[in-house]
# Entry
Amino acid sequence: MTRSVRAYLDWNATAPLSAAAQAAMRAVWEEGPLNPSARHRAGQRARAIIEEARETMATHLGCRPEEIIFTSGGTESANLAVKGAPVARYLVSFMEHPAVMRPAKASGRPVSLIEVDENGIVDLNALSRHLVADAADDAPALVCLMRASNETGVIEPVHQAVDIAREHGALIFCDAVQAVGKIPVDFADLGVDMLALSAHKFGGPQGTGALIVREGVELEPLLHGGGQERRRRSGTENVAAIAGMAAALAEVCENMAEKAKRLSALRDELEAGIRALLPEAVIFSKDAPRVPGTCYFAHPAWDAQTALMHFDLDGIAVSAGSACHAGKGEVSRALIAMGVPRDLAKRAIRVSMGPGTGKEDIALFLHSLEKLARRLKRSAA
Ligand code: PLP
# Structure
């Protein structure tokens, strides 16, 4: 953990590299140069490491090994799914991450944004309506719906969206970057056509991820070159990172239900503390199903950047909105779509936890929040 940080509560931005991932990566580096495309022994060894990682990941993600394409992370996976899909238009939920929204808009194909309710849950009737209303062409549409929000942690009704997409002959892509490692994610059970994940959100290394693609869905590759990953993603594979990602996934999936229970209890404790100290604070998506360790809230009287700095001075790492909005002064599109007034939306702070978070981290945060609450009271008086 970064030494100057006393309480790291920004796991949705990035999780610490897990011990299992570190060990797996070190073991690969110690083997020497490994290029899986090479024909010699070292190359064969590299290929074996990658295929073993693919098998491990397939087991934990409910897909077949051949359906996994290794990529450089969530952004590339989403770009490949969105830009590479053989579709005529997109239906994108308002909650989607820029890694999904921007390639859809950049494709030049029509994009319909799908409304969400006050908790950020996609409006399935609106999805049906858009699928009917905008259907004008022979090529299918692509529905883009995330499994869990990076901001509020809300869990989207992907199963139901799949049924609707199927009824209208549409393909469906699920960004599961914030779900993998937090709740069970099973590709076959979800029934989507494509699913994206990113290693650094669950204890694997940064710059590594995967796109799972159902057999039969033909994607146009983003990267052309040596034809790796069955011609779907060229470029020499990052063998150590792939091994690290698989090891991290196996570790995080172990006793997931127990870990989730513990994190839910920690979040309840955190939210009870927030409500006691700041009764006017608004906790977003509170009454909807959420991934266990995410709390997104705003106070009508604080400035989010000032609050962030206050926590930072106390050695507490949280973020103002998602890491992507933070620092750019942008207001969360997701919160606006949920009907949150702009003036409140810009004051949102996200606290996110993971397997390494303990009671002491929550206590440190609440202690710091108490000081901030006193300051707010003084300035209001
Ligand atoms: N999708 C979601 C929901 C995310 O939260 C993120 C990262 O924050 C991404 C995609 C992009 O993933 P990566 O950082 O691996 O490019």
